[in-house]
Structure formats: C-alpha cells, structure tokens
Design a protein that fits this description.
Length: 372
C-alpha cells in the first residue's frame, strides 16, 4: 500500500494534462481528416503531373521564346483584377453607409488570399478580410457581409462562365463524362446553397433556430462551449445584407465580381500571347471556368493548388493547344495571378494589422479552422 501511494501521481497535477489530452483527442478527427484530404488531393495532382515531365522538358523552348513585355501586360491585368475585388468591397461598404478606399480594398484582398493559403482556404480568407475591413472603419454589418457575399458572387460568375464553356465543349464533342459529372456535382452544391438561402429568407426565425441548433451540436461534438447569440446575430445580419441586395444594392458588388473575373481571364490570355500562341476567347472560356470554380470549393486545397493546374492543362490540351505550351502558360498564369499576390500579401500583414489592431499571429489564429 505504501508503494502504491508513492508511485501514484497526484490527481491535482494530472488534471490540466488530462483536460488538455481530452481537448486534443476531440480535435483529432477534424485535424487528421483535413490533412488526409490534402494529402490525397496533392497525391492525385502529382500523379497527373508526373506524365508531364517530358512535356516540361520541351516547354523550356517555349519559355525561352516568351515575350516578357507581354507578360508585363499580364501583370497589369492581374493588378486590375484586384482593383475589381476592391470595387466589390467598396460597394458592400456603401450598402451600409460606410466608405472603404480603393487601394485599401485591393490590399485587403491580396492579404486575405495569403491567409487563405496558410490557414486553409476561402473561409479563413473571408474571416481575415472581415477583420481588416472592420479595422478600416466599416461597420460590423458591412464587415460581416464581406465574409460571405464576395465568395457567393465569384462562384455565381464562375458558374456562368463554366456553363458557357461546357456548352462550347459540347458543341465540339469535347465534353467528357468526368467533366459533365464534376460540373453537375458543383452545380448541385451551388443550387443547394441558393435554395437554402431562399428558404431561409422566407422563414428567418426557423432558419436562425436551425443554424443555432446545428452550431450547438457541432460545438458539443468538439467539446467546446457555445454561445447562441453570435450565431443568431450572424444570421440576422446575413439576411440584412440580402435585403440590401434586393433593394438595388446588388449592381456594385456584381460589377466588381465581373471585373475581377474578366481581368483574371485576360491575364491568362496575355500569357498565351506571350508564349506566341494566341487562342480564341471561346477556348479560354471553355478551359477557365471549371478549374477556377473547383478552386472555390471549401474542401479543396487552398487556392486550388494542383487542381487548377492539372485540370486547366488537360482542358487546353484537349482543345488542341500543344501540351508544352499549355503547361508553360498555365504555370505562368498561376505564378502571376495566384502566387505573386499571395506572397506579396504577407508583406501587407504588418500594415493591415496595425490598422485593425493585433498581430499577424492573431489574424491567422482567428481565421484558422478549429483544431488546426
């Protein structure tokens, strides 16, 4: 008995460790599921890219012959697309009677893209954008709308572009069964979201109760405390934003989403011109929409890394673009339109965090999903 007393740890000392172990075990399912999904997607991307190694070797000739001043025009188009995103944020701020500078909106867009890259996708990026918009003088209602409205508008515009592109592929008899199934699945998801919002706008009290109960169950599953007031307040503000759109405030945000998408596509066009292989706008539309739409899906890799490149190269190659040209152009486009703004966004963190308050670690921690 004496030995048992001396070898048994004191229960008071073990309590914090036990509680921490319980919290970690509650996080494990979500934590490992997210990483497993990322590994699977990246594995598929590598599997699709490995056969392109020979093509990459031939692509060196394409790189040597690229026109660098035309690539500079592609960079200008990329910058203009970020100004389009800023127009969207400014229009949202105006809906609530607030103001947001054009340059500030573009900086917030670039920096939030960087947050999405390190914290896990479009949802953390939206959280960071809301924080910085709020710190720039926009009220809580307008800042909350920036969390969800830009994503929905971009998805809507990309869905239209994708539908037009798939119709073109169908006319050319290039629409494969996997592409049709993928688009049908994405369209079903978009339709479900729209239907849920439409139903909730007519039954707001029931929708708020449903969201609150779902959030409470999710918090209980993760053994987290839950306060229903923020969830209910968020639903109320979301539908307030929908009311503003219905009163005619949709024109500015939609224009911003269209401008952003148009100049992003124009960036891709100039990359083809720089490679000495200009192609028709119809081919650009056919190969642009679906990869970019997939990049917006919540469960894909941040920014669609690996998915956009492989899907886009495959579509262009199927439409008659030489594979070595398609590889070089798509990689150049992604470097200009995604990687450069994402890397530059990290340099903007100190400025935006000084405006909004806090540190870079604060915004990444706030934006990161639970359990990371």
């Amino acid at each position: 008995m004496h030995k048992r007393r001396t070898t048994t740890p004191a229960p008071v000392e073990d309590a914090p460790e036990t509680a921490e172990s319980a919290r970690r075990s509650a996080r494990l399912p979500t934590h490992w599921l997210r990483h497993l999904l990322t590994v699977v997607v990246l594995g598929l991307a590598v599997h699709l890219l490995l056969p392109q190694i020979t093509t990459l070797q031939h692509s060196l000739e394409v790189i040597r012959g690229m026109s660098w001043w035309v690539l500079a025009l592609a960079v200008v188009c990329m910058l203009t697309s970020f100004l389009g995103s800023s127009l969207l944020l400014r229009a949202i701020a105006r809906m609530t009677g607030d103001r947001l500078g054009l340059v500030r909106g573009a900086l917030i867009t670039a920096a939030s893209t960087s947050v999405g890259l390190v914290a896990g996708g479009i949802v953390p990026a939206g959280v960071a954008a809301r924080r910085w918009v709020r710190g720039s003088g926009v009220g809580p209602a307008g800042a909350l709308v920036t969390l969800w409205l830009p994503v929905l508008l971009y998805i809507g515009v990309l869905a239209v572009v994708t539908a037009v592109g798939l119709a073109y592929l169908l006319l050319l008899h290039q629409l494969t069964v996997p592409l049709a199934i993928t688009f049908a699945a994405v369209l079903a998801g978009i339709s479900a979201v729209i239907a849920s919002i439409a139903w909730g706008s007519r039954r707001r009290a029931r929708f708020a109760d449903l969201v609150t109960r779902s959030a409470a169950r999710w918090a209980a599953l993760r053994r987290r405390p839950f306060d229903p007031d923020p969830a209910r307040d968020g639903v109320v503000r979301i539908f307030s934003g929908i009311d503003w759109l219905g009163e005619g405030g949709w024109r500015g945000p939609v224009l911003g989403a269209v401008v952003t998408t148009f100049f992003d596509m124009l960036t891709l066009v100039f990359c083809f011109v720089a490679a000495g292989h200009p192609i028709s706008p119809a081919v650009i539309v056919a190969a642009y929409g679906l990869p970019m739409l997939l990049a917006k899906a919540p469960l894909t890799t941040p920014g669609g890394i690996g998915i956009v490149e492989t899907t886009m190269v495959g579509l262009f190659a199927g439409l008659g673009v030489p594979k070595q040209v398609a590889v070089v152009v798509v990689l150049a486009y992604r470097l200009i339109a995604f990687w450069l703004p994402s890397l530059a966004g990290f340099l903007l963190f100190p400025f935006l965090q000084h405006v909004a308050g806090g540190t870079r670690g604060d915004v990444v921690q706030e934006a990161a999903p639970e359990g990371v």
